[in-house]
């Protein structure tokens, strides 16, 4: 038996974060509004042919350290899940047209965070019996603009 018991005399709750990026295009445009209204609300972000972003995401899990492995969750496994669920779905896509989960909404960073939360929350349900939950989806749309969603 390894001597990791000392720090694990009691259950330890911890947060683990993996960062991932993808490039995508979008247009902020609500078909319920006129072109003028869209331009007033979304400005240059409503330009007809859209524009691109280098999105950076921080995905944080929360739970109890496994006393056998010393992990909350294997980060290699989290990397694979994020590649399957996020990179494959969003990278080099146009969010208004190419991503089924975004087609009925204006692809703001807020709604992108909610959609990504729902995708990952579903995928991670298989690990709930290990007391692991999704804690936060944080998205940087630009170097200066970020959104955090905690599932509420
Ligand atoms: N609440 C939100 N506001 C805005 C969103 C959004 O998703 N949620 N998105 C945009 C645009 O997509 C836009 O591209 C961001 O524009 P801007 O603020 O100009 O981006 P920068 O950080 O690069 O701007 P600087 O000029 O460097 O400050 C707009 N609003």
TrEMBL record:
<protein>
    <recommendedName>
        <fullName>6-carboxy-5,6,7,8-tetrahydropterin synthase</fullName>
        <ecNumber>4.1.2.50</ecNumber>
    </recommendedName>
</protein>
<dbReference type="Pfam" id="PF01242">
    <property type="entry name" value="PTPS"/>
</dbReference>
<comment type="pathway">
    <text>Purine metabolism; 7-cyano-7-deazaguanine biosynthesis.</text>
</comment>
<dbReference type="GO" id="GO:0046872">
    <property type="term" value="F:metal ion binding"/>
</dbReference>
<comment type="similarity">
    <text>Belongs to the PTPS family. QueD subfamily.</text>
</comment>
<keyword id="KW-0862">Zinc</keyword>
<dbReference type="InterPro" id="IPR038418">
    <property type="entry name" value="6-PTP_synth/QueD_sf"/>
</dbReference>
<dbReference type="GO" id="GO:0070497">
    <property type="term" value="F:6-carboxytetrahydropterin synthase activity"/>
</dbReference>
<keyword id="KW-0479">Metal-binding</keyword>
<dbReference type="InterPro" id="IPR007115">
    <property type="entry name" value="6-PTP_synth/QueD"/>
</dbReference>
<keyword id="KW-0456">Lyase</keyword>
């Amino acid at each position: 038996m390894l001597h990791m018991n000392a720090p694990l005399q009691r259950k330890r709750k911890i947060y683990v974060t993996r960062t991932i990026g993808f490039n995508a295009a979008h247009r902020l445009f609500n078909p319920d509004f006129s072109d003028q209204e869209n331009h007033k609300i979304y400005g240059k972000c409503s330009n007809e042919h859209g524009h691109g972003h280098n999105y950076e995401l921080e995905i944080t899990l929360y739970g109890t350290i496994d006393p056998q492995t010393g992990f909350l969750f294997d980060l290699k496994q989290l990397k694979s899940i994020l590649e399957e669920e996020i990179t494959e779905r969003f990278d080099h896509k146009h969010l208004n047209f190419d991503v089924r989960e975004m087609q009925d909404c204006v692809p703001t960073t807020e709604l992108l965070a909610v959609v990504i939360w729902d995708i990952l929350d579903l995928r991670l349900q298989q690990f709930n019996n290990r007391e692991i939950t999704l804690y936060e989806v944080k998205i940087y749309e630009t170097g200066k603009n970020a959104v955090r969603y905690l599932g509420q």
